[in-house]
Amino acid sequence: MAQAKSTPSSWRLRFVTWERVYTINDFFHRPRLGVADVFGRPHIYALAFNTLRDDYEDFFLVSPIAPDVLTLVLEDRDIELRWCRAFYDRGEVPAETQIEKTLPEDRKRRGEIMLLIGARLRIDPTNCRKLRAEFRNIRKYDSEVQWYEVAII
Rounded distance, CA 81 to CA 103, Å? Predict the structure, then answer.
């Protein structure tokens, strides 16, 4: 008996609305952590990690984000976008700024933001759900996501 493929078309329930991705804070082959709308409301998303297999799962955990953390995350994204436009689009910033991805005039504020966010950009295990996701780029620095129910077989 053939197994169902793990593709969006084989997932049982699909939420067909493309939703806004505010940030991708961690990316390695695919988004692993960030903030996006889930059913029209901002949430933290994190690719689930299986410690027994020492590998990532094929689903995300999503939790609502606190309004003050969202404000800080969006300000941080604006700082990084200013750097991206200066570095990639206009070539105005030296290569050594790639590690921080911050313009010199934004360094102090970005440091403050990172301290204020601290460990608050994480999933609340008491208030989360499992969803699969399909991400797509819609413009140079903008992405969208579709969320899918995790099929229980």
Answer: 10
Nearest CA among 40, 46, 18, 43 for reference residue 136 = 18
How far apart CA 45 and CA 145 sit, in angstroms, is 11
Residue type for position 65 = I
pTM of the model: 0.86
* Spatial separation of the C-alpha atoms in residues 46 and 69, rounded to whole Å: 16
Distance of CA 70 to the CA centre of its chain: 12
Show me where the domains of the chain are located.
1-65+122-153, 66-120
Quickly list DSSP for 64-86: EPPHHHHHHHHHHHHHHHHHHII
Which residue type does 37 have? D
CA 111 to chain centre: 20
At residue 137, φ and ψ (nearest 5 deg) are -85, 135
37-66 residue pLDDT tens: 999 999 999 999 999 999 999 999 999 999
Phi, psi of 99 (to 5 degrees): -65, -50
